[in-house]
Design goal:
Shape: globular
Bound molecules: flavin-adenine dinucleotide, D-malate, zinc ion
Number of strands: 19
Largest sheet: 8 strands, antiparallel
Helix content: 25-40%
CATH class of the domain at 93-211: Alpha Beta
Structural class: alpha+beta
CATH topology of the domain at 93-211: Uridine Diphospho-n-acetylenolpyruvylglucosamine Reductase, domain 3
Distance between the termini: 24 Å
Strand content: 15-25%
Number of helices: 16
CATH architecture of the domain at 93-211: 2-Layer Sandwich
Amino acid sequence: MVAALRAAVGEAQVLIGGDLSAFEQDWRKRLRGRALAVVRPRDTEEVAAVLRTCAAHGVPLVPQGGNTGLVGGSTPDESGTQVLLSLSRMNRVREVDEANLSLTVEAGCVLQTVQETAQARGLLLPLSLGAEGSCTIGGNLATNAGGTQVLRYGNARELCLGIEVVTARGEIWNGLTGLRKDNAGYDLRDLYIGSEGTLGVITAATLKLYPQPAATLTALAACETLAQAVALLQLAQARAGSALTGFEVMNAFSLALVRKHFPHLRHPLPASPWTVLIELSDAESEAHARDVLERLLETAMEDGLAGDAAVAETLSQSHDMWHLRETITLAQMEEGLNIKHDIALPVSRIPAFCEATDAALQQAFPGVRLVNFGHLGDGNLHYNLQAPEGADSAAWLREFEPRVSRSVYAAVTAAGGSISAEHGIGSAKCEELVRSKSPVALGLMRTLKQALDPSGILNPGRVLAP
Ligand code: FAD
Ligand code: MLT
Ligand code: ZN
């Protein structure tokens, strides 16, 4: 089989032995697997040849892009029997169609490179996340990534017009299209998006572009309570409409962790229980955006929704504000191994949910530290947790993580929420998926899996437990 893989992609692109930790270790350092081989195809034909080889030998395969996934979906298990298919060499921009506001790129293109490709033409790819310097378009679509501009532009699914996929049998489906309307038959594109490498391998995609806004402005506001932050969101939506492109929230402890581990970063506002980051993008002018933002913040302070606020005066101040927000995940890693709950709730229920769940956790797990932040505008919280101060994180997580997460997910379900807003299921949430979905929904998912990957070679043990 290894000989067949070498014939498919070239000897140098089948890595066996040596230090493969970049492929075998997940970003959160929660999983360390062992690959039978790391295979690095150069184009779609080579991916198809690899899939045919794996199918012929019944060997499972794990697709991997930038390996920034947070739910244990992109690394092989410990058995040493899974092929790791890295798409990183497939990083060509195939076409930019400026008049159609679209571009077609290969799956291994790094998100930031694609953003820059659009920007160089005065256009915008409005998909933005903290991992954009290393995550790939293939990974973004496979996880249906969200990020910080979903409020205005939708998640990765909404930004995708067409995809190219290699099936479990090694056939190539060319579904690349720049059409914005196409109701001809079942929507195969949307079936593959968000399937986390379990139904097919995405090899290229056509993405929507937008005109770049004339101005983008950022502000921070200090709120005493989460209920005030939600009221501020309502006010911002009413005042700014579709110019509101970002609305993020951070609790005091998230920013305290950033302060502790990245002391050089500037904090424009003094610490407060909640800090909100607001971004407005304006098609007209900076003066117009500034006027809307300043008046909005004035009203918020008059109405007692915010105690203090700071509007970025320069691009560099705006970057500093975003940097604080994007650094929380890194600060959490510096603090130690941690627990993530990427949850979605109706925005209106978020304050009560947090009040009740925070209290229940503090009572059941004394000293547990809540790192609560996220995309409030989308109703998406990163309701993350850090072990108590001074505890051995690994040991604490081993003992408490299952019970902690169970109680959080039970509360999420009771509040009509989702156990995964944007990160996916991976291997980390398979059991919770079974708890949170109806037997009918799970049956339909298994039917799809069986139809598209009958031998079960595509990313086994992810999304649907075996
Ligand atoms: P990988 O991690 O390599 O893979 C992720 C999953 O997709 C795996 O199941 C893998 O098998 C599958 N996959 C990868 N490529 C393909 C392909 N070509 N075909 C089929 N399946 C494939 N996520 C968000 O949604 N929003 C955020 O705001 C966000 N912020 C983040 C911040 C940081 C600092 C980090 C580290 C991660 C963040 N993430 C966020 C999570 C992660 O970046 C996204 O899930 C991203 O979309 C993964 O892309 P990737 O290329 O790294 O995929
Ligand atoms: C983010 O939005 O920064 C990530 O999705 C959150 C996380 O790391 O939990
Ligand atoms: Zn996020």
